[in-house]
Amino acid sequence: MGDATEINLPDYNLTGKVALVTGATSGLGRRFSLVLAKAGAKVAITGRRLERLDELKREIESLGGTAAAIALDVTDTGSIAACMSETEKSLGPLDILVNNAGMNVQALPAEVTPEGFDTMFDTNVRGAFFMAQAAGRSMMARGAGGRIINIASIGAHTVLPGLTIYCMTKAAIAMMTKSLGKEWARKGINVNAMCPGFIETELNSDWFQSEGGQKQIKTWPRRRLGLEEDLDGTLLLLASDHGRFITGSLFTIDDGQSL
Ligand code: NAI
């Protein structure tokens, strides 16, 4: 038991750490990349739209940070392997993976096609799993532990109207988080997930500007959308030493939207 003079308040310093963010070209992934870089991590910003990655790299560098812009399509396991080796060559061994890339094909359950279904599962589940596998293998080979932060959704545990298949993919991410948390606990790898509520990004901005979207916002207790920065604190907790005792956990961050 320490006394009060030994209490160190969190400073979330990630200097010396290497992080990789998938789907960094927009929305939450872009924000996560900037926050990790500002906390001192060297960040592999990855995605399919290379010109956007170059722009983000310049922005990180203008803040005094370090970034490597690396092509990645999470549905292609060859692309995952190439991205991992490029990250380690450019920045060093990986400490933190933010498994953020994700998408939705808008279709009601009675109408969704097999192609739409497969696209969602290939990106949100298969892509996230093989990214976690690649990161986990690298962390285990090095033996220094690591952090995997999966981006699920409140749809992992709450029915979101019109988003059946999307919610199914996020429920799979929730179970993957708990299972890998247990499998890799002895290896010093902490695996957790954020389950955000609705936050306005490119994924949903058209919907929330529509009449239907405005009505949906009014059904939530605080009648407001989240902002990208509302996830900063949880990200830094899970990425930093202050998250040492947290693994296999799912964090609902939704302003009460799912209550
Ligand atoms: P977004 O559409 O702005 O970002 C998703 C990113 O993933 C994009 O950069 C996209 O290009 C990338 N991506 C999609 N398929 C990919 C692939 N095959 N390979 C590599 N990158 C790929 O949307 P947002 O909102 O930033 O979403 C980020 C994550 O957060 C997603 O997993 C989403 O499901 C999740 N989420 C978002 C919420 C929201 O309200 N915005 C709420 C809960 C979860």
From TrEMBL:
<dbReference type="InterPro" id="IPR002347">
    <property type="entry name" value="SDR_fam"/>
</dbReference>
<protein>
    <submittedName>
        <fullName>Short-chain dehydrogenase/reductase SDR</fullName>
    </submittedName>
</protein>
<comment type="similarity">
    <text>Belongs to the short-chain dehydrogenases/reductases (SDR) family.</text>
</comment>
<dbReference type="Pfam" id="PF00106">
    <property type="entry name" value="adh_short"/>
</dbReference>
<feature type="domain" description="Ketoreductase">
    <location>
        <begin position="17"/>
        <end position="197"/>
    </location>
</feature>
<dbReference type="InterPro" id="IPR036291">
    <property type="entry name" value="NAD(P)-bd_dom_sf"/>
</dbReference>
<dbReference type="InterPro" id="IPR020904">
    <property type="entry name" value="Sc_DH/Rdtase_CS"/>
</dbReference>
<keyword id="KW-0560">Oxidoreductase</keyword>
<dbReference type="GO" id="GO:0016616">
    <property type="term" value="F:oxidoreductase activity, acting on the CH-OH group of donors, NAD or NADP as acceptor"/>
</dbReference>
<dbReference type="InterPro" id="IPR057326">
    <property type="entry name" value="KR_dom"/>
</dbReference>
